[in-house]
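seq as requested:
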Amino acid sequence: MHWVVGDVQGCAREFEDLLRAIRFDAGRDRLVSVGDLVNKGPDSAAALRLWRDAGGVAVIGNHDVYALCARSGRQARRENDTLDALFDAPDADELLGALRALPVLLWLDVPDGAGTWVVHAGLHPHWTDLDAAAERLNAGAHDDDWLLRTEVTFATRVRSCTADGLLSERVGPPEIYVDPYRPWNELYTGEARVAHGHWAHRGHYRAGRVIGLDSGCCYGRELTAWCVEEDRVVSVPAR
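struct tokens:
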């Protein structure tokens, strides 16, 4: 089974709870993260180790980008980040190297028409050929310049945008956005299913072929996983 997990953001204990709740078996199941494995929660290093030791795959999220650029000095540290323990960990370079290697778009090749694209935040309205977009976006050295590319930023930060892909700077639930801005999923015209995270204000939702999985664990709500084959959702409460 493919289990796609919403934004963990350093909430390692809840991540453990969720893996127990879904009876995850690394010999049978595949763990897929929608990104933002780190920051905001209390133990980013432990969350990364859980994901790594489970044989997990993932796409990169905006907090992962921030952690990497803060570590390299490309971006200034924010006063309220929770990355000190990760940066000081003896295996920090290994853990952060795994983050840096992550793709922007990931295709889950699931049988019986259940194949699904995974992206952290969302898709640009002009990305109509997602195979080509993935090849373009994921290619090249994943250095800091790559992390801060316009297209990578879009895929890791969009909530609402215009039909031409202009990002809204507002942060909140879908109802705060007004024309010409619309939730990005309303502009998605593809046939494949898409799973994403990032939009904690929206929580877990389904809309057409899109499923959102950020249920705001780091804000005291829930951590959510979706089984692709069974189309089944399991959530655990934040501690």
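The chain has one domain: 2-159+190-237.
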